[in-house]
Amino acid sequence: MSFPINRMRRLRTSDTIRNMVRETHLHVDDFIYPLFVTFGQEKRIQVNSMPGVYQLSVDKLLPEIEEIHSLGIPAVLLFGIPEQKDSLASSGYDEHGVVQEATRAIKSAYPELLVVTDVCLCEYMDHGHCGIIEPDGTVNNDASLELLAREALSHVQAGADIVAPSDMMDGRVGHIRKVLDAQGYTHIPIMSYAAKYASGFYGPFREAAESAPAFGNPKTYQMDPANILEALREVELDIEEGADIVMVKPALAYLDVLRAVKENFAYPTAAYNVSGEYAMVKAAAAQGWIDEEAVTLEILTALKRAGADIIITYAAKDAARIISG
Ligand code: PBG
């Protein structure tokens, strides 16, 4: 049956009808808000390429957390900017490291807010790569696993609710699971950055986290943007190793990957709406070229429609305000 019996426009005549037949609903419970915690005190430093995003010292974190909490955002994802960087990322697993201190501060003030910690070495390495560098410049996979597991354990000991390894070393999910379990943390979930691409969209993040690689690039560990079958193998391996939530990152240019991951594994699936995606919207909106609210909701809705259960986004506060607005 077709026109004139069928008229698709009948169900588009009013907000009420459109709301009734809407297939995808964004909810504030979907969001995780990333935060950059820096060393020192009294710091609230605007990240140039990410308007609205700040590097915050632990003492300046609580007003931010209060705002996040009052908007109903259920979770934050912590990144650390340490005072000292070295070739073994030692401040990454220091019990008094920035992420560890921030986790304690947040959990004691807002115990019900979920603290997810990014587990990676790049922010703590003097060279900005996600693993230990050999004299010939290559990244040593297996030696890096020990440090990643130490870092994850120290986050959990500080009170982290979920750990999120983002390094893309092979075997890290299994290794972290083993170490957490051996220490009695069998109940702590792992959200793995399972399909993480070597992407140009991380540019602003590397300014925010002060983690740009000093030489080379991450292509020996992060994925080639051209590949999707490889993403499915990455996700399958992480699930076998014990990942509880699997992530696709970046999000917007990888909606097909997101959909395929959701359909193939039916696992809780996260999408990371990364720094460059956020910066593009902010930049175009500042020029008056796009409607920021409309585009923000459209992007986040698209991620959910494509299969995301969880959306990690710097726009979480903006979106929460619009949705509840
Ligand atoms: C650390 C990490 C990165 C991001 C999240 N965790 C950067 C990178 O891999 O270079 C990027 C997040 C963003 O761009 O918003 N490994």
Number of domain units: 1
Small ligands present: ligand PBG
Q: Mean of the pLDDT scores?
A: 97
Number of strands: 12
CATH class: Alpha Beta
Question: What is the fold's blueprint, element by element?
Answer:
Elements: H1 15-21, E1 31-38, E2 44-46, E3 54-57, H2 61-70, E4 75-81, H3 98-109, E5 114-119, E6 132-133, E7 139-140, H4 141-157, E8 162-165, H5 172-182, E9 191-196, H6 203-208, H7 229-240, E10 245-249, H8 255-265, E11 269-273, H9 275-286, H10 292-306, E12 310-313, H11 316-324
Parallel strand pairs: 1-3, 1-4, 1-12, 4-5, 5-8, 9-10, 10-11, 11-12
Antiparallel strand pairs: 2-3, 6-7
Helix pairs in contact: 4-5, 7-8
The structure holds ligand PBG.
Please provide a written account of the structure:
With 325 residues, the protein is an alpha/beta fold. It has a single domain (24-324), classed as Alpha-Beta Barrel (TIM Barrel), CATH 3.20.20. 38% of the residues lie in helices and 17% in strands. The protein has 11 helices and 12 strands. The strands form 2 sheets. Strands 1, 2, 3, 4, 5, 8, 9, 10, 11 and 12 form a 10-stranded mixed β-sheet that branches. It is globular. The N and C termini lie far apart (40 Å). The model has no long low-confidence stretch (mean pLDDT 97). The structure holds ligand PBG.
Q: How would you concisely characterize the structure shown here?
A:
With 325 residues, the protein is α/β, with parallel strands linked by helices. The protein contains eleven helices and twelve strands.
